[in-house]
Specification:
The structure is a single chain. This protein is of the alpha+beta class. The protein has one domain (about 5-95): Alpha-Beta Plaits. Helices cover about 40% and strands about 30% of the residues. The protein contains four helices and four strands; from the N terminus they run βααββαβα. A four-stranded antiparallel beta sheet has the order 2-3-1-4. β2 and β3 (about 50-55) form a beta hairpin.
């Protein structure tokens, strides 16, 4: 399955309701699993972003739909990166002319 890295920033709404953020994170995980995804890691981070989630999901379309729903809830804004494992990287490089 493809791997995705979601960088998340709290919205004003999410920051005001920070005490419920761990519960929302658990709901996020359940929602991800419901679409056939698997959480590889979830972190509270310091710096430009508030959370980083690393997950596998069946397709770009599935993860995009899931993240649009997450954003629509109003607690976080996301920036999503599709990630390639080292083996995939090596395979891609071998295809270079």
């Amino acid at each position: 399955m493809p791997t995705y890295v979601a960088l998340m920033k709290l919205t004003d709404q999410g920051a005001k309701d920070i005490k419920n953020a761990p519960t929302r994170a658990q709901e996020f995980i359940k929602g991800l699993e419901a679409i056939g995804g698997k959480l590889l890691g979830f972190y509270l981070v310091m710096g430009e972003y508030d959370y980083v989630g690393i997950a596998e999901a069946p397709s770009d379309e599935v993860v995009l739909t899931f993240l649009m729903g997450l954003g629509a809830a109003g607690n976080v804004k996301t920036t999503t990166l599709k990630a390639f494992k080292l083996e995939e990287f090596a395979s891609l490089v071998k295809k270079l002319p």
